[in-house]
Amino acid sequence: MKTFKHTAGVHGGRQDLRQLGVHALPVDLSTTYPLSNVEDGMAGLDALVEGQARADNPVYARLFNPTVDRWELALAQAENAEAAVAFSSGMAALTACVLALQDRGRHIVAVRPVYGTSDHLLASGLLGNEISWVNVDEIAAAIRTDTALVMIETPANPTLQLVDIEAVVAQAGDVPVLVDSTFATPVLQNPLNHGASLVLHSATKFLGGHGDVIAGAIACSEQWAAKLRQVRVATGALLHPWAAYLLHRSMPTLKLRVERAQSVAGELALKLAADARVTRVHYPGLDGQDTQRLIGRQMSGPGSVLSFEVNGDHRTAAAVVNAVNLITPAVSLGSVDTLIQHPAALTHRVMDANDRENCGIRPNLLRLSAGLEESHDLWKDLDQALESAFESSESQAA
After folding, report:
1. Domain boundaries defined on the chain
2. Element (H, E) at 255
3. Which of 74, 162, 319, 366 has the highest CB neighbour count under 10 A?
4. What is the pLDDT of residues 27-72, one digit of tens each?
C-alpha cells in the first residue's frame, strides 16, 4: 500500500520555484492576462475551453490560474493521480462530477451515509440526475445501462463506516466509482490505488487544516480531468488563488497534523467507550469495529474523526455541545483545534428524518474531529460537558 511521504508534502507542486527565483509560493491575483497578440489569445482560449490543463496565454482567470495549478500538481502527486482539478468548494467539485458524467447517463448509485449536503444534492435531482440509494452489497444489482456513477464515502460521515473500495469497484464494472475521501486524506488512503476513478476532497477540511479556506478538489486521470475542467470553465467554479495558496502552504504539515490528530482521537475514543454516559462510540480504531480489516490494507490508520452516542436523546446531545469550553462547537472538521457538532441538527439536517435514522444518524449522535491539543485537556472538557448535560437532563426530568 502506497503511503503519503513527507517529502511529497513539502516539495509537491513547487518544481518551478527555482526557475522563478523564489522560495516562498507566489500568488497570482490577476483577473486577466495581457495578450502578446490576438492569435495567442485565441489559441489559449480554445485550449482551456476544451479542458486542457494550461495554455501559453491563459487569457482570463476564470479559465486558469497558476497558483491554483501549482496546488493541483501537489494534490495529484499526493493522491498518486495523473491530475487534480480544484474548485471553489467541495460541493462545486461534486456538482462538476455529476455534470461531467451526463454523457454516460443520468442515473447514480450511491451508498449512505455521505455528507448531508451531498445527500441532499443527489436526492433532490437538481442536476437532472436520478439516484438509487443502496447497501454496499446491492451495488451490482442496481447498475443500469444509463448508470453514470457509483458514489461512496469512506470513512463515512458521520458514522465512520468503512467501505471496501476494491469490492465496490468490482461490483461497478465499467461504471466509474467516485470516493469521497475527505475524512482519510491522502495521508491515510489513496482510492485510485484501489481502482476508483475519481477521488473527492472537501479541501476545506484537513487539506486546508486551519479553518480559513473553502475549497474542493477531484483527483483523477487526465481524461477525467479534462471533462471536469470543461465544466469548471463553463460554470465559473475555479478555486480562488488565495485559497490555493493557503492550501499549498498547508501541504508540508499535512502528514504531521493528520497523524497527531489521529493519536488524540484514539485516546479520546477509548475514554468515551469506557464511559457509562456514552452508549456507543463509532471509530474504526476501536477493537471489533474494522470488521473487514481495511486498516492496513486500504487505510494506513483509522483517522482523527469519531462519533459517539450519548445515553439520552436529542436534548441531551445538544446539551453536551452547548457545554464544551475548550472544544469548539462548530461544523466542519480537520482543523488544528477540536470541533464537535450534532449531525442530525446541523450537517445532515437537510436529509429526510427517516433516511437519517436508517443510516445511523440518530438524535443522540455527536461527531468530534480531534485537533492537535493535549488529549487530557480535551477529555477534561468532554467529561465536564457530559456531566453538565446529564445533570441538566436529570433536573428537567425531575
Report:
1. 6-252, 254-397
2. helix 254-273
3. 74
4. 999 999 999 999 999 999 999 999 999 999 999 999 999 999 999 9
Decide if 6-252 and 254-397 have a common fold: no
The dotted CATH code for 254-397 is 3.90.1150.10
At which residue does the C-alpha cell 491539543 appear? Answer: 373
Q: Which amino acid is at 117?
A: T
Task: Give 281's strand partners.
Answer: 308
Query: What is the number of residues in the chain?
Result: 398
Write down the pTM of the prediction: 0.96
Beta-sheet pairing, 147-153 with 198-201: unpaired
Domain 6-252's class? alpha beta
Residues 69-97: tens digit of each pLDDT? 999 999 999 999 999 999 999 999 999 99
8 versus 339: the higher-pLDDT residue is 339
Burial (0-12, 13-18, 19+ Cβ within 10 Å), 296: exposed
Distance from C-alpha of 353 to C-alpha of 5, rounded to nearest angstrom: 42
Spatial distance between the Cα atoms of 162 and 294, rounded to a whole number of angstroms? 8
Task: Answer whether 281's CB lies under 8 Å from 105's CB.
Answer: no
Q: Which amino acid is at 130?
A: E
What letter represents residue 44's amino acid?
Answer: G
CB 353 within 8 A of CB 242: no
pLDDT level of residue 348 (50, 70, 90 thresholds) = very high
> Who contacts 208 (Cβ-Cβ below 8 Å, separation ≥6)?
215, 246, 247, 250, 334
Q: What angle do CA 214, 218, 221 make, to 5 degrees?
A: 160
